[in-house]
Amino acid sequence: MDKGRLEAFSDGVIAIIITIMVLELKVPHGDDLTVLQPLIPVLISYVLSFVYVGIYWNNHHHLLHAVKKVNGPVLWANLHLLFWLSLFPFVTGWMGENHFSMLPIAVYGCVLLMAAIAYYILVLVLIRLHGWDSRLARAVGCDVKGKLSALAYALAIPLTFFNHWLALSIYVGVALTWLVPDRRIEKVLVE
Amino acid sequence: MDKGRLEAFSDGVIAIIITIMVLELKVPHGDDLTVLQPLIPVLISYVLSFVYVGIYWNNHHHLLHAVKKVNGPVLWANLHLLFWLSLFPFVTGWMGENHFSMLPIAVYGCVLLMAAIAYYILVLVLIRLHGWDSRLARAVGCDVKGKLSALAYALAIPLTFFNHWLALSIYVGVALTWLVPDRRIEKVLVE
Amino acid sequence: MDKGRLEAFSDGVIAIIITIMVLELKVPHGDDLTVLQPLIPVLISYVLSFVYVGIYWNNHHHLLHAVKKVNGPVLWANLHLLFWLSLFPFVTGWMGENHFSMLPIAVYGCVLLMAAIAYYILVLVLIRLHGWDSRLARAVGCDVKGKLSALAYALAIPLTFFNHWLALSIYVGVALTWLVPDRRIEKVLVE
Amino acid sequence: MDKGRLEAFSDGVIAIIITIMVLELKVPHGDDLTVLQPLIPVLISYVLSFVYVGIYWNNHHHLLHAVKKVNGPVLWANLHLLFWLSLFPFVTGWMGENHFSMLPIAVYGCVLLMAAIAYYILVLVLIRLHGWDSRLARAVGCDVKGKLSALAYALAIPLTFFNHWLALSIYVGVALTWLVPDRRIEKVLVE
After folding, report:
1. Average pLDDT of chain A?
2. Which spans are transmembrane here (chains A, B, C, D) (predicted)?
3. Which of B150, B190, C150, D86 has its CA 20 to 30 A from that of D20?
4. B25 touches chain A (CB under 8 A)
5. CA–CA distance, C149 with C164 (Å, rounded to integer)
6. Which positions 115-144 of D are in contact with C (Cβ < 8 Å)?
7. pLDDT per residue over D86-118, tens digit each?
């Protein structure tokens, strides 16, 4: 089974997720600056999620690049990842509309954590299919960065109830570390 | 006529269907747990439909993989299947918002049944084009699983008016049996 | 310049148009048959537009199949066609919500007419690029069916104000004649 | 890393942006001409944005055609461009609903300016990857037209507060100059 349609379908779903998030930025009534003001947190929330979905697309792109074949479990592990990504528009809108209050930030963190776990499962299913001595396995390595990110989200979620701005800063900080693309896979592929 | 654009178009439509369903999960006003509670049935309904649309994408992916050529009737049989799949967001939202009450569950079952019939028609049109002794025909076989699923939906629809939770359980049960990808086609293709 | 991305972009836009039309089928409040009744004209309107957009996708698929190259004017002629197709969700929703009253039917006809003209312009621009003695030109021929359809829409629009059911019947009738795929192009391609 | 998925993802996002803009054209209640009248500015705003997004797709298509390879920074420069394009539906709807009043026109100009800058950054990142003596660099040249367009937007934004119709005319005028596709790249590619 070839990976072409898996890539095409994932690209389609991720493209739609990243684009329909902007629909939460509702066109306001009125045409002065005061109507734009309540939209600022929604816009910031949108930017954060745009970056996160962009990170997943980039990493997915790199990961699939090293993939030779797919099977049934890979298709489902991929759909599982897409499911958690599909909840981004909801949690983004909820966090933005409530001006980054406590519970929405915690729920946003849960979706981040579940997406990270789903990505990790996808990597494991792919490595099991290709073998632990495959180029893919070497390219991904033990994925310290991915595990640390998941750990950061897991810590940020309970932290929200003490200081939700700190939790939000963790999400922003993790995103910044990922803006640098995954050079490990690129490196092994060039070798 | 090659099958590439048929796959690309189907991937596009299915990707959009699976993603816009999440728009039924409306961002609530307020930021405490009480506003999330009424969303739980909508979320469960979304998960069920996400799995069903995922099943159709997986099976469509497997089916098209064995296809060599397409013609006019195949294009229309495929659009017919996409039409019934496109009603998923509506019935999903309706079933979720009404907390799985009777009529929405019955209507959901009708869409499931019509999609199963449309898939079966697509298979028949494809087999007629490739011949009953083609690799495609052998790969699909007599599709007992597909026919039993359609039968289960057909039984669940009237059952709704006696015990709608039982009907819903049938939908969930059938989905679980399909989470296992269609090994018959994979097997024949590997031969 | 190759035609691959033109096909991919058109597939994407048409897939989205055909799918977001279903968003006009708003999830009703309540769970009995009475809430479904006002949705029936919206559903019928959706089916008609689904078939029309499907026809455009099929014919576009056939047309592009015979195309060897594209240039700037082709890209714009194609976008012009996509623009008129993009108005389908609006006119479909308006016609359905107003239970097929006069003005919406006339406006629907205007969009049908403009899409037919835009398709014809695309064909002309493609033939000018490939030459009047190309396989594409022979495959398309003088497109009597396309011209007669445009004529039918042009007649149906003023007719709406005398008998709008007759106008609607013309739209349905033309759609039925197109459900048969464009065998002319298929025939020449097989030669 | 190959450019195929970058093109596919960009096509997907741009196709969705250009199509969901039409959702701002809300289906009105009532079926006479008076309900269509307030939609005219929304429609005009939609046409302008459809042309602008179409221009970006065309130029992106031409640009990527000359590209041989992509890397991490290219993926992010591309996502940055898509981010600004994704704000088109919002500013289009806001400008249309407020009948082209002052502030929405200025904000529309800001999004135009940022998209132009993002496109320029993408070009620079691509040239840095391919080398200043590559066919890509020669094809793009010093991009006088792109720089003049950005300058025009930058001038139009403050101008809005003196005469917003003049600012709007500048947007329309720049769009018209771009409807002609980028012959420079086509020319060099043919050489």
Report:
1. 88
2. 6-23, 35-55, 75-94, 106-130, 150-180
3. C150
4. yes
5. 18
6. none
7. 999 999 999 998 888 999 999 999 999 999 999
**What is the length of chain D?**
191
Query: Is the Cβ of B67 closer than 8 Å to some Cβ of chain A?
Result: no
What single-letter amino acid sits at C145?
K
What digits encode the pLDDT tens for the residues B69-109?
888 889 899 999 999 999 999 999 999 988 889 999 999 99
* Tokens matching residue D66: 């000359």
- Give the model's pLDDT for residue B183: 58
Per-residue model confidence as pLDDT tens digits over A14-60 = 999 999 899 888 888 888 888 998 899 999 999 999 999 999 998 89
Which residues contact residue B133 at a Cβ distance below 8 angstroms, ignoring those fewer than 6 apart? Answer: none
Q: How far is B70 from chain C (nearest CA, A)?
A: 11
SS3 A169: helix
Give residues 89 to 108 of C whose Cβ lies within 8 Å of D: 89-90, 93-94, 97-98, 101-104, 107
Tell whether D7 is within 8 A of chain A (Cβ): no
- On average, the pLDDT of chain D sits at 88
Are B12 and C12 in contact (CB < 8 Å)?
A: yes
Confidence of residue B181 (pLDDT cuts 50, 70, 90): low
Q: How far apart are CA A67 and CA A65, in angstroms?
A: 6
Q: Are B9 and C11 an interchain contact pair (Cβ–Cβ within 8 Å)? A: yes
C-alpha span between A64 and A130 (Å, rounded): 12
Q: Which chain A residues contact residue D97 at CB under 8 A?
A: 27, 29
- ipTM for this model: 0.89
> In 10 A of CB A186, how many CB atoms?
17
Which region, left, alpha or beta, applies to residue B37 given φ > 0 means left and ψ of -120 to 50 means alpha? alpha
> Residue A1's closest chain B neighbor by CA?
B65
